[in-house]
Amino acid sequence: MDPVSAVGVAAAALQFLDASIKAYNAFQEIRSSNESVTERNKQLEDNIRSAQSLRGSLPSASAPQGAIDPVSKLTTKCTLKADELLKLLKYVRGSGEDISSIRATLRAMKKEKRIKELHGFLKEDQDTLNQMISQELLPSINLLTVQQSREFANISSIAQKLIKEQIEQQRIHHATLTSKLDSIQHDMQLRNNADYQESTRKELLKSLWFPEIDQRRNEIKEPAPSTLHWLFEPPIKRAKSRYSPKWSDFREWLREDASTYWISGKAGSGKSTLMAHIVNDERTLEDLDAWSSGYKLEVLSFFFWRAGSSLQNSVLGLLRSLLYQLCVLQPAISDHICGSLSSLVGIPTWTEKCLLENITKAIQLNQGFRFCIFVDGLDEYRGLYDDLVDCIEKLTGFGHVKACVSSRPELELVNRFQDVKQLRLQDLNRGDIEKFVKQALAKTHLNEDQRTSLTRDVVCRAEGVFLWASLVTQALVKGSKAGDDEEIMQKRLDSLPRDMNQLFERILSDVEPVYRDSLGFYIQLMMMTTNWDDWIQKLRSIAAITAMLSTKDINSYEKFAEECERTRTQIINRSAGLLEVIQTDSLRINKWRRKGLKFIPNEPCFTLELKRLNRRRCTETEPCPTMLIYEKQCMTWIHRSAFEFFSDQKRLPVEFNLSDEETLRRIGEGYMRYIVAAPSLTHSSHSLNTDSRFDSLFSFLARRHNRYPDAVLVFLENIYSIYAQFDPFECHVADPTYADRVPLEIDEHIAPIAFWSKCAKFGLWSYLYPRIDCVLKDAVYESHITHLLLVSIRAGYGSKRAPGANFSPWVKGLVEDLYQRIIQGLEIGGVAQPTRYRCIEEVSSCYPLENPFQCVTWKEPVSVRYTRVMLYLLNVIISVERAGEARLLQESAAFSGLLSVTELYVALDLGLDRIYIQLSGEAFITARIKPQGVIGSCVSAAEVNGAVRILCFPSSMLKGEYSQLITLQPSTAISDQLLSLIEDCADATRYDKMFRMIPGMYQQREKVCKVLLEEIESAEQGLDGDQQLVAAACVKAGLLYPDGEHECAWRFQFRPSGWSSTG
Q1: Is 987's pLDDT higher than 50?
Q2: Gap between the Cα atoms of 905 and 918, Å rounded
Q3: Which residues contact 713 (CB under 8 A, 6 or more apart)?
Q4: Which range, of 306-310, 472-476, 624-628, 827-831, averages the lowest pLDDT?
Q5: Which has the closest alpha carbon to 1052: 968, 969, 966, 967?
Q6: Is the CB of residue 715 less than 8 Å from the CB of residue 850?
Q7: pLDDT at 972 over 80
Q8: Does the first or last residue of the chain, that is N or C, have fewer Cβ atoms within 10 Å of its Cβ?
Q9: pLDDT of the residue at 1050
Q10: Gap between the Cα atoms of 451 and 444, Å rounded
Q11: Are 768 and 812 in contact (CB under 8 A)?
């Protein structure tokens, strides 16, 4: 018996039982009452008659004898007992007979026991039947569908009543449960809010930070003792001294002014030293506190460095540093930025425009603060000075922000800053130069008069150039130690040229011949690694240089540390003051002690011949090798002037015996020697790991590949053979830029893929493409191919340089191989394999999606999972689109085929309630190739088959559960109408929402919704009645209230039997 019929039978039986029990109750009242029984007898007759009338609506007692369902059995049982009870009551009453009251009493006494017994049975059966209806029959029925069906009127009134009551109870229960769930969710949000905010702050800071963010400032030496105090003295007081040039009172500017202050000076005059001193001096904060007048003060700074990495000499680096400092100083600013990026998935790739907007917004929203920005070395910016000054003026265009900047007096900068408060450092630092020279000459054997005479001459000839004075003084001190008397020292001074470049030439000429080979290597190493990324700068560490210069095997870390100290001393003594050694960072022992994998060789040996690796994982208690401190010490230029001098090779007065190719060989072999022997951490944020060291080597080789292809080829072949010998966990630290937050699984196959990924990461296309067959052989899984494809796309289009002729065929080869693998997975031996659909949604998934998508769906074989494959593929699409090269994918037949066979669909982030509007991968690419605007004008559903699909998710808890979502495939006409409602509003320099529903088109949405509701009921959609009901409600909620203006009136529940809803 079907559930609805069973409810009808059970309800009728309940009604019959109820009437029979009422008849019994009337009988009992007659027996117990002393009053007139006429009325009560009439009531008993009415009850019996009513019960017999209801008995007629039930099947006969013999009809369901063969029935096996519980309802029929129970109904038959209780009906037979009720029939017997009514028969006894009629007998006792004497219905149809004329008996006396005495006889009726006697009959009642005779049958009383059986009547009470039957009454008890019926009460038990009534309870059992009620329980069966409420707990078994009604829950198995879609009550709302039954109530709204045409057959509802044919059900008995009591059954209708039961169904209506059950629906109301469900509504009340659902409302109560929803309220409780909302309360629990609210409590969880409150509980987790602090943790969530902290994690998003960390993610934001991580995206802004870069290794060189404080490098230049940290490299600047402390000023000589008792110097630079004049800056905090009034110009009037200074006018009484021997040096009285005109300049704007700096301390007055700190305390009162809100404009820009410009510190200009000749090359080498000490501008960076002065700026670092200003930032670090307590008097600066004291005076700025006076300017802030009770408002909270924040001081920001940035030091440009032309010889450094791109972020050290660009507006992008300046803005990232400033925003990073703001977020560190004020967590509320971090929270505001994260809130403004809530439509994103993760943190965006920062651009100058996006950074500038976020900084200015943060400044504007914090009117209760005062901001002072110090920017050193504007002339070291690699770009148009006007662009840089425009950026600074935008930052200082508010009444509570001011800036102090420094630079050489370049013409463009002089024109832009001529009307601001300023000082010229070469006019004011004579006293400081004098103190410095006096302190240095005090170490010589000269008497005071002789020192005074030489000091006066040096100060006069320096003309405010501190660097010149420093180099000349070093030469004088060196001569004194060699026994020079005053006359010789004076002649030495007279012979030194006043021009810096000529002085550098003279210094080089005076280098002892025995040191020239060493100095030549240092200089060539510096020239090969200057102006490049931070990875290559690691090749200038003292540890790396020691390995490069070593001519013998070093068999312990202790001996290697001794050699490193010797290398450090030699650099200082043999570079004639043109190079220096700085501490780039401190060796943090606590990081070594943290839980995590650490690796060292079983027998540390820096050998000249690379042998088979013999490395092991360290125990947790193993101490940190102290030799690592020399990886944190780096060789650098004494000043930018030295770098500029050596950049012009025609000026060099001496020739170095070492060729560029020999230098390349020594660098490559030496650093490889260091990698295989050095201790390693696997902490991704730490530079002391093997993966990071390989980045340095690959970056260096990639820069030299075009010029020395044969030499680089030999290195790469050696690296490939060695790479496979490393522990997979040592050589593959997650890289958020290229591994893209969906890291590869680390297994026995990862080593060669990690090697090929490194080659792709650094753009070695001319090496990769000829070896594509070897690469594809190493790529065991489809995820390996898509990972290589993503890394290649991001490296090829992310670089400022053109990728070259081998890039396109390399990418094409990867795509074609992937396509063939996917086809083979879907069809084995020509037989189509069972498939399933997968859905990953940004909130419920552990795999974050790239903006502008909310979810992605695809088809895959039941036997495998394509999660990593499809997410890599999705990020390939986004990366190519952002690079403006989407046509590359559209014109690839293999890529189009790949999107088609996997049925890849992406849901646009439109903020719709209860529905996702999805575009096929092909439709999305087509939309992004053409100019921005209404998508319907770019994509035609008639030209792109299956361009649009709609996913309905009645409950937010079911996002990502594809099997429980309802899918609609709109007709071509409706697809085109939907596309005409969506606007491509992306700005190429921003990463906020790329798409949105066009505002002010409510009537058009109503029309589309109406036609779509008709399509939902069509046979082409293949939906049953329940699914049609749910889909209609979702479409209404999404299209008629696209901005969440109204709450959908329907609540949905999913049971094994299907969807149900309550109002």
Answers
A1: no
A2: 6
A3: 767
A4: 827-831
A5: 966
A6: no
A7: yes
A8: C
A9: 38
A10: 9
A11: no
Bridging pattern class, strands 995-997 and 615-617: unpaired
Exposed, middle or buried: residue 798 (CB in 10 Å: 0-12, 13-18, 19+)?
middle
Query: Average pLDDT in the 504-522 region?
Result: 87
Closest CA to 54 of 46, 63, 66: 46
Considering the chain, what percentage of its residues have pLDDT values greater than 90?
31
The mean per-residue pLDDT over the stretch 99-109 comes to: 70
Closest CA to 237 of 249, 225, 223, 219: 249
Helix (H) or strand (E) holding 814: helix 807-826
Q: What's this model's pTM, rounded to 2 decimal places?
A: 0.71
Chain center to CA of 982: 26
- Report whether pLDDT(989) > 50: no
Structure tokens, 125: 């059966």
pLDDT for 863 equals 82
Average pLDDT over residues 341-349: 55
Mapped onto helix, strand or coil, the DSSP state of residue 151 is: helix
List, in sequence order, every residue forming a beta bridge with 967; answer none if it has no partner: 951
- Residue 112 has a pLDDT of 76
Distance between CA atoms of residues 1048 and 1034, nearest Å: 8
Which of 92-106, 373-387, 583-597, 716-730 is predicted most confidently? 373-387
- Cβ atoms of residues 959 and 843 within 8 Å: yes
Closest-CA residue to 757 (of 739, 741, 770, 737): 739
Dihedral-angle region of residue 268 (phi above 0 means left; psi in -120 to 50 means alpha; beta otherwise): left
Pairing of strands 260-264, 296-303: unpaired
Say which residues have a Cβ less than 8 Å from residue 934's Cβ, sequence separation at least 6.
979, 980, 982, 983, 984, 998
Sign, Cα dihedral of 927, 930, 931, 937? negative
Distance between CA atoms of 218 and 586, rounded to whole angstroms?
A: 11
Q: Which among 755, 609, 748, 597 is positioned nearest to 680, based on CA atoms?
A: 597
Torsion of CA 158, 162, 167, 171, to 10 degrees: 130
| Of the listed ranges 540-549, 635-644, 989-998, the one predicted with least confidence | 989-998
Q: Which of 258, 250, 257 is nearest to 233 (CA)?
A: 250
3-state secondary structure 932-985: CCEHHHCCCCCCCCCCEEEEECCCHHHCCCHHHCEEECCCHHHHHHHHCCEEEC
CA dist 182 and 415 (Å) reads 63
Is the four-CA dihedral 459, 463, 466, 471 of positive or negative sign? negative
Q: What's the mean pLDDT in 480-502?
A: 88
**374 pLDDT band (50/70/90 cuts)?**
very high
Q: For residue 736, is pLDDT > 50?
A: no
Q: In Å, what is the CA distance from 1044 to each residue of 906, 956, 1033, 1039?
A: 21, 14, 14, 10
Please classify residue 13 by burial: count the beta carbons closer than 10 Å to its beta carbon, then call 0-12 exposed, 13-18 middle and 19+ buried.
buried
512: burial class by Cβ within 10 Å (0-12, 13-18, 19+)?
exposed
What sign has the CA pseudo-torsion 143, 149, 151, 153? positive
Rg (CA), the chain: 43
Q: Sign of the CA dihedral 988, 311, 322, 250?
A: negative
Q: Which helix (H) or strand (E) holds 385?
A: helix 385-395
CA 377 – CA 392 distance, rounded (Å): 13
For residue 126, the Cα-to-chain-centroid distance in whole angstroms is: 63
**Measured between alpha carbons, how far is 442 from 451 in angstroms, rounded to an integer?**
7
The pairing of beta strand 982-984 with beta strand 995-997: antiparallel
pLDDT band (50, 70, 90) for residue 1025: confident
Q: How far apart are CA 905 and CA 902, in angstroms?
A: 9
